[in-house]
Write a structure and sequence with these properties.
The complex is a heterodimer of chains A (about 375) and B (about 300). Chain A has nine helices and 20 strands. With about 375 residues, chain A is an alpha+beta fold. In chain A, helix 2 crosses helix 3. Chain A is elongated, with a radius of gyration of 24 Å. The two termini of chain A are about 20 Å apart. Chain B has about 300 residues and is mainly α. In chain B, strands 1-2 form a two-stranded antiparallel sheet. In chain B, helix 5 packs across helix 7 and helix 7 crosses helix 9. Chain B starts with about 35 loop residues before the first helix and ends with a helix. The chains are: A alpha+beta (about 375), B mainly alpha (about 300). Chains A and B meet through strand 6, helix 2 and helix 4 of A and helix 8 and helix 9 of B.
């Protein structure tokens, strides 16, 4: 799977090719008993980057984060931070700080003592500690909760305290382990923008772990999609969405239809595929495909056009309102396709329709790969 | 004393999340289930206590009790009487001292074990085994265990013979039986399991992420232990200590079986007032003074827990 590793548009940091990466993982392997959580993973994270490790649960993203933090030691390979090999160096001696999934605030200490915890034990004076804690609370926009206990704060405030506690240590790299996972939808949306703002203001390298592709798309400079301990693709959010390298990525990022067909014509990365009852479509591909091969085609639901088509064998099975658009489930022969259409363009269940798929975003993959659904089930 | 184990290490709860639980509020029907236990406690706990309390203000006679209200029994407890002098207060203080020492030793023994159990033993089966080893003694009768210590600590007992073997014949340790040390050793062994269980219950709920967070913030192993693990385990320690202190300072079996005549504790006095001496009013008065001490102790520990947790 070597083709997956190269990333043409990877580093968004244009300050110079010679810049030393903030974090480097070299052929890292981590096993738990018989399970290989991280499998020969190599990754380079640029200074100041907002990088997201994205994947289904069990894909090894959290383990990768814990390897950087120092809570786990790799069985093989090397973890370098600012060019220094971290082998044998415990978590409390690494220049990184972590925001934990459930915040892990100290319940017996007030908010300001929570934030000042690391500074106090690092021997920073009282006056300076108070100053830096206050500045952090200002940055997090929670200036008035210093004397409260964590249990007296809302989820969003606890989140900010956890961020402040980690950032006040001036880490080289901030590690965030699904920090928004336990917030409700609206708060999560707000915090995504907050995190972006904080990242801009402090300029620290952020390594963010999530299984939520929308979160990853919103915030990241670069997304690393992981599956079964390996990297499937690393690229900017737009490129991941528009040009997924594998059907796993296509399936995992955004909604998509994976339809099976046969390649009929291949020229210069463009493949024409016969989808049987669904007709013929053309799409781009980075795989080695020859005419006559079985292939999988990824079609975004928004790229399916639905027209009135009496006599067609494509039939609307279901039609539901999803937010601002209508999702229709359409079957044609053995294939099922989901189409997203505007409210005016919907059809009643049972109606015969004609499908037209034509888009720049259609991707074609050689058959025989895993899909997100298959991997998430393990 | 029961809810202490619940809170300390739990992941922070969003305050708004707590709504009054009203789903079983069908009239007064839900109280019905409590009737048997409340009835039982009332009949066999509250009423006997009330009778004893009333009796502690009565007067003993040669063959029984005369319902002659007075405070003489309490005066006797605090200041002694002409017949035996002032023996009850010193005995009470000695009991509290023994209780405090037992609490101290069992905490010292229990904490490392509870810590080991909660954090260091990763293998589930090993942990279960150690856990069972801790609670197995609770399945044997208290009397049996106290007798076992008699065998161990006696002149030709296991401990003494062992010391003989290694050439320490004349050590004072050879004859520990019938001493205060024997009382403390016996009770420490008996109450340590309770201590382990209460401390373990708290440590087990302490999320490892808190310990990781501390290390992540640059604090080493030992300092993390002293600044994080110990304060967060205090509710368990306080609960166990209250339990141990209350039970051990009111114990009469251990002093009876392995203690000497001068090691009798306050509960032995109660015992003898209700038995040989046949002075129930005085026995009741001593019992209520002891009960008062324990009540104060529980109140203090409840306060300490509240401050610890808020």
């Amino acid at each position: 799977m070597s083709k997956v590793q190269d990333s043409p548009s990877a580093a968004p940091d244009s300050s110079g090719a010679a810049a030393r990466p903030a974090v480097e993982l070299v052929d890292v392997v981590k096993r738990f008993g018989d399970v290989t959580a991280v499998d020969e993973l190599s990754l380079s994270i640029a200074d100041g980057e907002f990088l997201t490790l994205l994947g289904p649960s069990g894909c090894g993203k959290t383990t990768t984060l814990r390897l950087i933090a120092g809570f786990e030691a790799p069985n093989r390979g090397e973890v370098r931070i600012e060019g220094v090999d971290m082998a044998g160096r415990p978590a409390y001696k690494r220049p990184v700080n972590t925001v934990f999934q459930q915040y892990a605030l100290f319940p017996h200490l007030s908010v300001s003592r929570n934030i000042g915890y690391g500074l106090k034990h690092a021997g920073v004076g009282k006056a300076e500690t108070a100053e830096r804690v206050a500045a952090m609370m200002e940055l997090m926009q929670i200036p008035d909760v210093g004397e409260r206990r964590p249990s007296e704060l809302s989820g969003g405030q606890q989140q900010r305290v956890a961020l402040a506690r980690a950032l006040v240590m001036n880490p080289e790299v901030l590690l965030l382990d699904e920090p928004l996972g336990s917030l409700d939808y609206k708060l999560r949306k707000d915090m995504q923008f907050e995190l972006k703002r904080i990242h801009r203001e402090v300029g620290v390298t952020f390594v963010y772990v999530t299984h939520d592709q929308e979160e990853a798309m919103t915030m990241s400079d670069r997304i690393v999609v992981m599956n079964a301990g390996k990297i499937e693709q690393q690229a900017t959010p737009a490129e991941i969405y528009d040009r997924p390298l594998t059907s796993f990525v296509a399936d995992f990022i955004g909604d998509t239809n994976i339809v099976h067909g046969t390649a009929t014509r291949v020229e210069d990365g463009h493949v024409t595929v016969d989808l049987g009852a669904l007709g013929e479509v053309g799409g781009s591909s980075d795989d080695e495909i020859a005419a006559g091969d079985r292939v999988k085609v990824s079609i975004r639901p928004t790229d399916v056009k639905v027209e009135d088509g009496s006599g067609s064998d494509a039939v609307v099975q279901d039609s539901v309102l999803v937010g601002g658009h209508i999702a229709m489930k359409i079957t044609s022969g053995e294939e099922t396709v989901i189409a997203h259409v505007s409210r005016g363009g919907s059809f009643e269940p049972g109606a015969a329709v004609r499908l037209d798929v034509d888009s720049e975003r259609i991707r074609v993959f050689a058959d025989g790969e895993t899909t997100a659904a298959g991997a998430a089930g393990e | 004393m029961t809810d202490v184990v619940a809170q300390p290490g739990m992941p922070p709860v969003v305050p708004e999340a707590s709504e009054p639980d009203e789903k079983e509020g069908k009239g007064n029907g839900r109280y019905f289930l409590g009737v048997p236990i409340v009835g039982w406690m009332f009949l066999f706990f509250a009423i006997p206590y009330l009778l004893l309390f009333i009796q502690s203000f009565w007067k003993p006679t040669a063959f029984g009790v005369s319902q002659d209200w007075n405070l003489d029994n309490y005066k006797t407890v605090f200041f002694g009487d002409d017949l035996v002098g002032s023996i009850y207060m010193p005995t009470l203080l000695r009991s509290l001292k023994v209780g405090a020492l037992v609490t101290l030793f069992s905490t010292a023994l229990a904490f490392p074990l509870a810590y080991l159990l909660a954090f260091k033993i990763r293998n589930h089966r090993t942990r279960m085994m150690v856990y069972v080893l801790v609670i197995v003694p609770l399945w044997a009768s208290y009397l049996l265990r106290a007798y076992a210590w008699k065998v161990i600590l006696g002149q030709n007992g296991l401990f003494g013979s062992f010391l003989d073997q290694i050439g320490l014949q004349d050590s004072f340790l050879n004859n520990l039986l019938y001493s205060q040390a024997a009382v403390i050793i016996t009770m420490t062994q008996i109450f340590t399991p309770f201590m382990v269980l209460t401390i373990y219950a708290v440590l087990e709920r302490l999320p490892t992420s808190l310990i990781e967070a501390s290390k992540d913030l640059g604090v080493g192993r030992f300092k993390t232990f002293t600044t994080l693990v110990i304060p967060l385990s205090l509710p368990g320690v306080i609960a166990g200590a209250t339990f141990t202190m209350g039970l051990s300072s009111g114990d009469f079996v251990a002093p009876q079986l392995v203690g000497g005549p001068s090691d009798m504790m306050i509960a032995n006095q109660v015992y003898s007032q209700f038995g040989a001496t046949n002075n129930w009013p005085l026995g009741s008065a001593i019992a209520f003074v002891l009960l008062g001490c324990v009540a104060v102790l529980v109140a203090i520990s409840a306060q300490a827990e509240k401050r610890e947790l808020l």
